[in-house]
Amino acid sequence: MPAQPLHFVVAAVCLRDDRGRLLSVRKEGTRRFMLPGGKLEPGETARDAAIREIREEVGVELADVELLGEFHGAAANEPGATLESTVFTARALGEPVACAEIAEVRWVDPEDLPDDLPLAPLLEHQVVPVLLGRTPEA
C-alpha cells in the first residue's frame, strides 16, 4: 500500500518594516525563503502558534495580529507534501533576528522580489499577491 502524502498544518506571519518590506526566513539546511511560522502544537490555535513561532524563530513579540487568510499549496522543503497555512499580519515589537532553526532573515520588497531569491511557492504565488491586492496564482 503506498504511503499517504505528507500534509502540514502551519501558521505564519507577515511582518512589514517601516519601508513596507516583508520579513522572510530561511531555515537551516534549506534554500527557500518563507514566512516565519511553523506547525501547530496539539490543542493550539493558529493565532497562538503564530505568536509562539515568531517568538522562537525571530525573537520578537507581536502586536496588532490580524488574519490575512488561509492558503493551501505545495510545501517548500518537503517534495510531494502539501501545506495548509493560516497567515496573519502583525507588527513586530523589536528587531527580528535569526533564532532556533532559522539560518537567515531577509527583508524583501513584495513589489520588487529579487529574481535570484528562492521563495517558498506559497509565499511567492499566493501570499504576496494578496498582500499587494492582486489575485493569487492557482
Helices and strands, with pairings:
Blueprint: E1 7-15, E2 22-27, E3 37-39, H1 46-58, E4 61-74, E5 82-93, E6 102-108, H2 121-131
Parallel strand pairs: 1-5
Antiparallel strand pairs: 1-3, 2-6, 4-5
Would you mind describing this structure in some detail?
- The protein has about 140 residues and is an alpha+beta fold.
- The chain has a single domain, classed as Nucleoside Triphosphate Pyrophosphohydrolase (Alpha-Beta Complex).
- The chain has 2 helices and 6 strands.
- It has helices at about 45-60, 120-130; strands spanning about 5-15, 20-25, 35-40, 60-75, 80-95, 100-110.
- The chain has a 4-stranded mixed sheet, sandwiched between helices. The protein has a two-stranded antiparallel sheet with strand order 2-6.
- It is globular and about 50 Å long.
- The mean pLDDT is about 95.
Helix and strand pattern:
EEEHEEEH
Largest sheet data: 4 strands, mixed
Low-confidence stretches: none
- Can you tell me the CATH architecture? Alpha-Beta Complex
Strand order of the largest sheet: 3-1-5-4
**Overall outline:** globular
Count structural domains. 1
Derived from helix and strand composition plus strand pairing, the structural class reads alpha+beta
Helix content: 10-25%
Whole-number average pLDDT? 94
Number of strands: 6
* Level-1 CATH class name: Alpha Beta
Compute the number of helices.
2
CATH homologous superfamily name?
Nucleoside Triphosphate Pyrophosphohydrolase
CATH topology: Nucleoside Triphosphate Pyrophosphohydrolase
Distance between the termini: 30 Å
Q: What is the CA-based Rg, rounded?
A: 14 Å
Query: Which band does the percent of strand residues land in?
Result: 35-45%
